[in-house]
């Protein structure tokens, strides 16, 4: 699953799972409660763990449901199978609706701003058509919950491929890029027969940490000031299936209620303590970048309050959303806390 995403661990996942496997035997239960694109969740599932995945945002939960819970294609009886459901998605008639007006190159945003070039006018109308079709199928009971999630998973993935952005949805490019001129299309995804029993739910880690009953927890918190709810507002709107007020030139959905304390330098330490105090598990693994809001000494000062700490580190090339972003290598660290 190709996805441009802040903090995406795809290039580090083998190392991360390898470090966890040094401590936790296959067959154990592990939670990934800040799962993002679920790249670590599915890698842990492949390694033989039973995974509980969650996220504060809705669109990562949609991805996790598709990657963890669907070990084969849903039946899609109303369409005559999965392939026919995709054929339907590719044939849906365009609609000049919310996405066309608010995020399309020929749109007329409700707040009177200039058109937002997140998508070509053709793709924005296709997105509206598919959204409306999925909502109708779900509300009329034609598709079940898993089928609904899979169609949204496809819509989010395909929309992301034709988005006219440099990496996040904080703003759009001034001219439509080559990828944005490609037509929106839907192709089959691979389903994996992973061992183990997996669960997926939505919620902020501070709210559900005490409810996790697992052998280990893998934490991958945001480590910069860039809020995921704002930077991926369009994908969240697809997952929420709503039409929020599009604010400002960039058309962001109201996101402050989904803001993460881990992104604020003044609140990050408190967020870690709140989370760690409520986790009841023998092993906690924390991924954190050298570029993070808290430095290594600050993190160790916190983690040492909760158990014996070992640190592992790996260099990698940092995420760049545009040409202004700092380039070069950075260290990713895994802090293993063997709790008291």
UniProtKB/TrEMBL annotation:
Protein's UniProt keywords contain S-adenosyl-L-methionine: yes
Keywords in alphabetical order: Methyltransferase, S-adenosyl-L-methionine, Transferase
Catalytic function, reaction form: a 2'-deoxyadenosine in DNA + S-adenosyl-L-methionine = an N(6)-methyl-2'-deoxyadenosine in DNA + S-adenosyl-L-homocysteine + H(+)
PROSITE patterns registered for this protein in UniProt: N6_MTASE
InterPro entries xrefs: DNA_methylase_N6_adenine_CS, MeTrfase_D12, SAM-dependent_MTases_sf
GO molecular function, one term: nucleic acid binding
Transmembrane segments: none
Keyword set includes Cell membrane: no
GO BP term, example: methylation
A Pfam family hit: MethyltransfD12
EC number: 2.1.1.72
Protein name listed in UniProt: site-specific DNA-methyltransferase (adenine-specific)
Organism this protein belongs to: Aliidiomarina taiwanensis
Taxonomic lineage from the root: Bacteria, Pseudomonadati, Pseudomonadota, Gammaproteobacteria, Alteromonadales
């Amino acid at each position: 699953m190709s996805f441009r995403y802040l903090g995406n661990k795809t290039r580090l996942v083998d190392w991360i799972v390898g470090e966890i496997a040094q401590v936790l035997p296959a067959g154990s239960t592990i939670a990934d409660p800040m799962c993002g694109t679920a790249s670590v969740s599915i890698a842990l599932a492949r390694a033989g763990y039973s995974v509980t995945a969650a996220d504060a945002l809705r669109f990562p939960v949609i991805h996790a449901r598709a990657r963890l819970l669907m070990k084969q294609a849903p039946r899609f009886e109303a369409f005559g199978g999965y392939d026919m459901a995709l054929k339907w998605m590719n044939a849906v008639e365009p609609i000049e609706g919310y996405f066309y007006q608010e995020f399309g190159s020929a749109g007329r945003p409700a707040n009177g701003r200039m058109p937002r070039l997140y998508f070509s006018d053709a793709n924005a109308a296709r997105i509206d058509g598919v959204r409306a079709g999925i909502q109708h199928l779900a509300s009329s009971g034609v598709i079940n919950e898993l089928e609904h999630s899979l169609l949204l998973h496809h819509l989010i993935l395909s929309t992301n491929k034709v988005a006219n952005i440099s990496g996040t949805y904080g703003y759009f490019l001034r001219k439509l890029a080559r990828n944005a001129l490609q037509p929106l299309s839907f192709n089959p995804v691979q389903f994996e027969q992973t061992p183990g029993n997996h669960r997926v739910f939505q919620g902020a880690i501070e709210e559900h940490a005490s409810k996790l009953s697992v052998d280990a927890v893998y934490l991958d918190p945001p480590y910069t000031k860039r809020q995921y709810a704002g930077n991926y507002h369009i994908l969240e709107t697809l997952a929420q299936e709503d039409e929020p007020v599009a604010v400002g030139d960039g058309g962001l959905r109201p996101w402050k209620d989904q803001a993460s304390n881990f992104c604020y330098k003044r609140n990050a330490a408190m967020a870690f303590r709140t989370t760690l105090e409520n986790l009841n598990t023998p092993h906690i693994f924390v991924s954190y970048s050298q570029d993070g809001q808290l430095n290594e000494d600050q993190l160790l000062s916190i983690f040492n309050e909760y158990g014996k700490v070992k640190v592992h580190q790996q260099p990698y090339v940092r995420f760049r959303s545009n040409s202004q972003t700092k380039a070069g290598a950075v260290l990713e660290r895994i802090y293993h806390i063997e709790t008291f």
